[in-house]
From TrEMBL:
Xref: PROSITE patterns: ADH_SHORT
Keyword rRNA-binding: no
Record GO terms (molecular function): oxidoreductase activity
InterPro entries named among the record's database cross-references: NAD(P)-bd_dom_sf (IPR036291), Sc_DH/Rdtase_CS (IPR020904), SDR_fam (IPR002347), Sec_Metab_Biosynth_SDR (IPR052178)
Record keywords: NADP, Oxidoreductase
SUPFAM superfamilies in UniProt: NAD(P)-binding Rossmann-fold domains (SSF51735)
Keyword Phosphoprotein recorded: no
PANTHER family in the cross-refs: 7-ALPHA-HYDROXYSTEROID DEHYDROGENASE, SHORT CHAIN DEHYDROGENASE_REDUCTASE FAMILY (AFU_ORTHOLOGUE AFUA_7G04540)
Protein name stated in the entry: Short-chain dehydrogenase
Record-stated family: Belongs to the short-chain dehydrogenases/reductases (SDR) family.
Lineage: Eukaryota, Fungi, Dikarya, Basidiomycota, Agaricomycotina
């Protein structure tokens, strides 16, 4: 088919209208860690555009606050519902799946977003010799912290994905959507950078593992003809519980630009915002021809760090 014929085949249908290109009206979504931070941004954006979104987390308070806040906004046709569960355990994952199955016959998108950043030893806060580094990094950390990070940041994505696989497949077989549900795993630019970011070996390694996990999931699902897409997002600095940024610091002023450019190392001179992130998520979940990819959204931080 020629480019012209391809254009003619869709021009008269209006499918290239943005309201159709990124249409999630009536979708069912699950967002782990959806009560705060970028998980809440994701849930809100989906709900405002007509999706029914189940958010989960270990603490009931932020989940209920998120639900109440969205109801108060009275925007969009969608809905946010909360399920308190701990996706770092099989019991918690099964509870989440069963709660969703009570109301839904399929889900269109699973966003594995739950994550933590735990203490690490500062590699710069010691004598920069073999002896000094050995003492700081060996005695200053423990296996338990590393295990906790991998359990939540990586292993929970594996088990949650496979637990929801039948509901994801059902979006096409039962819900009659053009494709099964798809998955977005949330990693970090820290999973790509070659620097430890002052000794953050544990967190960075867990996020790197999340990226490889996502590629393996996408590959194995494609090999088996499931049609379930898996992609991974690698955010940079966004306001969240792990990155404390005062909204007043993101004013676009010259001093603010210099602060984020020179101190934070962001060439664009600002942190990311909700619009940036929502645009990223909607592009991945709507495009039925993309799987196994990682999308970096960091304002150029990795480019700066490469020098």
């Amino acid at each position: 088919m020629s480019a012209r014929a391809l254009f003619d085949s869709v021009a008269s249908t209006g499918v290239l209208d943005t309201s159709k290109l990124f249409n999630v009206d009536g979708w069912v979504a699950v967002v782990t860690g959806g009560g705060t931070g970028l998980g809440l941004v994701t849930a809100t954006a989906l709900a405002e555009n007509g999706a029914r979104v189940y958010i989960t987390g270990r603490r009931a308070e932020p989940l209920q606050a998120a639900v109440d806040e969205y109801k108060a906004l009275k925007r969009g046709k969608g809905e946010i519902l909360s399920v308190q569960s701990d996706v770092s355990t099989k019991e918690g994952i099964l509870k989440l799946v069963e709660e969703v199955k009570l109301k839904e016959k399929w889900i269109n998108v699973l966003v594995n977003n739950a994550g933590v950043s735990l203490p690490c030893a500062d590699i710069n806060a010691c004598e920069q010799t073999a002896e000094g580094l050995s003492k700081q990094m060996f005695e200053g950390e423990n296996f338990e912290t590393w295990n906790d990070l991998y359990r939540i940041n990586t292993a929970s994505y594996h088990f949650t994905t496979f637990a929801f696989l039948p509901l994801l497949a059902a979006a096409k077989t039962v819900g009659n959507y053009p494709e099964p549900g798809n998955i977005v795993n949330i990693s970090s630019m820290s999973g790509i950078t070659k620097t430890s970011q002052k000794g953050q070996f544990n967190y960075n390694a867990s996020k790197a593992a999340t990226i490889l996990l996502s590629h393996m999931q996408a590959t194995e699902f494609a090999r088996r003809g499931l049609g379930i897409r898996v992609n991974v997002v690698c955010p940079g600095y966004f306001p969240s519980g792990m990155t404390v940024i005062n909204p007043e610091d993101n004013t676009g002023s010259e001093s603010q630009f210099s602060e984020f450019r020179n101190k934070w190392g962001i060439p664009f001179g600002r942190p990311g915002n909700a619009v940036d992130y929502a645009q990223c998520i909607f592009g991945l979940i709507s495009n039925q021809y993309v799987t196994g990819t990682e999308l970096v959204i960091d304002g150029g931080w990795l480019l700066e760090a490469a020098f």
